[in-house]
């Protein structure tokens, strides 16, 4: 009986010592080491890739897209669509999960893309404006394309339908993409310049300065981070 109690006590003691040692190693030392290495070598990424304005205030993360919309006239109406604030560069459409999704304004609660096929609503393989069913992907793309043309056409500059890139009318796979193509950014230059009373050359240079090339020269596509571009635009307009 005494041997049984003694053995049990030794086992419990060994288990508690192992628990204490592993807790210190795995719960204290390892997290501190990883955190220290991350802060020392990858400080920006470890802190969420924060983007700051010229005053040092954090305005968002360069990894997550944002919407740039005017305040709703009726904030309590969930059916009211937000209108874009045309003085800012606009990101990709954010309703990647469809018009009934919670992810209609880059909401972080959910990410993903629509499950509709690329030819949803198409007739004979094309999106015919004269024969398209409401609510289909074709209808959404055509409506978005018309809005892009209307919003970005200014006095002396008219956007041609063939100049509208795909990322201007479709959301990304995550619905949270912070980037747009250089083509879409350049398409918005005249409108942004007009809205902010800037020279077109100034805004073109801003886009060029914030265009990132392919990773290592061959991976991915050239891209423009909309948050970083708009942060630079704000600094330019308030300087």
Features:
239 residues; mainly alpha; 3-stranded antiparallel β-sheet; two-stranded antiparallel sheet; 40% helix
Would you kindly provide a written description of the structure presented here, covering whatever features stand out?
- The protein has 239 residues and is mainly alpha-helical.
- The protein has two domains: 2-46; 52-237, no CATH class.
- Helix content is 40%, strand content 6%.
- It is built from seven helices and five strands.
- The protein has helices spanning 2-41, 43-46, 137-152, 182-187, 189-196, 200-209, 226-237, and strands spanning 50-52, 58-61, 179-180, 211-212, 223-225.
- The strands form two sheets. It has a three-stranded antiparallel sheet with strand order 3-5-4.
- Strand 1 (50-52) and strand 2 form a beta hairpin.
- Helix 5 (189-196) crosses helix 6 (200-209).
- The longest helix has 40 residues, at 2-41.
- The chain is elongated.
- Mean pLDDT is 87; it is low at 97-102.
């Amino acid at each position: 009986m005494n041997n049984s109690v003694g053995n049990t006590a030794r086992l419990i003691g060994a288990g508690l010592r192992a628990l204490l040692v592993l807790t210190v190693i795995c719960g204290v030392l390892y997290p501190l080491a990883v955190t220290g290495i991350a802060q020392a070598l990858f400080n920006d990424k470890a802190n969420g890739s924060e983007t700051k304005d010229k005053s040092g205030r954090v305005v968002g993360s360069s990894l997550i897209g944002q919407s740039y919309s005017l305040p709703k006239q009726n904030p309590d109406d969930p059916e009211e669509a937000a209108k874009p604030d045309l003085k800012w560069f606009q990101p990709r459409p954010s309703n990647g999960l469809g018009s009934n999704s919670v992810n209609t304004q880059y909401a972080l609660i959910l990410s993903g893309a629509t499950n509709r096929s690329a030819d949803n609503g198409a007739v004979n393989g094309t999106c015919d404006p004269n024969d398209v069913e409401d609510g289909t992907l074709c209808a959404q793309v055509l409506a978005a394309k018309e809005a892009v043309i209307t919003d970005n056409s200014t006095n002396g500059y008219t956007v041609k339908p063939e100049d509208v890139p795909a990322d201007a009318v479709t959301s990304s796979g995550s619905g949270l993409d912070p980037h747009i193509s250089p083509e879409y950014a350049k398409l918005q230059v005249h409108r942004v310049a007009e809205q902010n009373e800037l020279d077109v050359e100034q805004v073109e240079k801003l886009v060029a300065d914030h265009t990132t090339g392919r990773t290592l020269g061959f991976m991915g596509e050239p891209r423009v981070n909309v948050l970083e571009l708009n942060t630079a635009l704000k600094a330019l307009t308030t300087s």
